[in-house]
Design a protein that fits this description.
Order of helices and strands: HHHEHEHHEEHEHHEE
Largest sheet: 7 strands, mixed
Number of domains: 1
Bound molecules: S-adenosylmethionine
Number of strands: 7
CATH class: Alpha Beta
CATH architecture: 3-Layer(aba) Sandwich
Strand content: 15-25%
Structural class: alpha/beta
CATH topology: Rossmann fold
Mean pLDDT: 95
Radius of gyration: 16 Å
């Protein structure tokens, strides 16, 4: 049980031995969830994309496969995640198709109107000021650009305690579909859409900058 706790705690900001294990487990464990999330957005040749909270870098790799002649950036505030993402994407980093940087979602090191697409998979729960952080992402999106948020921890009315142990240990909260829609609207996004996957606790939201 202690090992499980050490691993889980490293979802917040992976570091050290348990962080390395967590990164490996996230790359594997979020594979299907990420593919499902990505199936909700259009990614065209030449797109500039950003993955926020890129973890082990698998979403950056998936985006690189889809943007053709475009470019993919990843940011994470964990130095270990940046290192692992760089290694995972080394071929695309070498040819400058991928660029991974250490940064917080609260202060993105990018100009206004930089990206066609921004993705954020299983990271929203940890952000320090969710409304301000969503606005910071909006700043970096191009007009007409899309944000994709992907979650595995959807609150369940039938089983309200489903995420209790993780919530208490990590001081986070599972999300509801309505709460995410409201947050995106208050942050200034348009064309907000959400989807859930039957038989899972998955949620994804897409929203646009007007
Ligand atoms: C559960 S992991 C998900 C990683 C990856 N997106 C995936 O799906 O495998 C959460 C990630 O968000 C990052 N993260 C958490 N808070 C962050 C913040 N404020 N700014 C940037 N990254 C953050 C963590 O370091 C971690 O890599």
């Amino acid at each position: 049980m202690k090992k499980y706790h050490k691993l889980t705690e490293n979802a917040v900001k992976p570091t050290g031995f348990w962080g390395r294990l967590m990164i490996r487990s996230m790359n594997k464990g979020h594979h299907a969830l990420t593919d499902w999330g990505l199936s909700h957005i259009e990614i065209s040749n030449g797109f500039r994309a950003l993955d926020v909270g890129c973890g082990g870098g698998k979403t950056v790799a998936k985006l690189c496969d889809r943007v053709g002649s475009g470019k993919v950036f990843g940011i994470d505030y964990s130095p270990l995640c940046v290192k692992k993402s760089l290694t995972y994407n080394r071929k695309n980093v070498l040819c400058e198709k991928a660029d991974i940087r250490q940064a917080s979602v609260s202060a993105l090191p990018f100009e206004d109107d930089s990206f066609d697409v921004v993705t954020a998979v299983e990271t929203y729960y940890f952000w320090p000021d969710k409304l301000t952080d969503l606005k910071e992402i909006l700043r970096t999106l191009k007009h007409g650009g899309t944000l994709l948020l992907v979650f595995e921890m959807l609150q369940s009315e039938e089983d309200p305690d489903r995420w209790k142990a993780v919530e208490e240990r990590l001081h986070i909260r599972a999300v509801s579909e309505q709460e995410i829609r409201d947050m995106l609207q208050h942050a200034g996004y348009h064309s907000i859409q959400t989807d859930t996957k039957e038989g899972t606790s998955w949620l994804c939201a897409t929203a646009k900058k007007e």
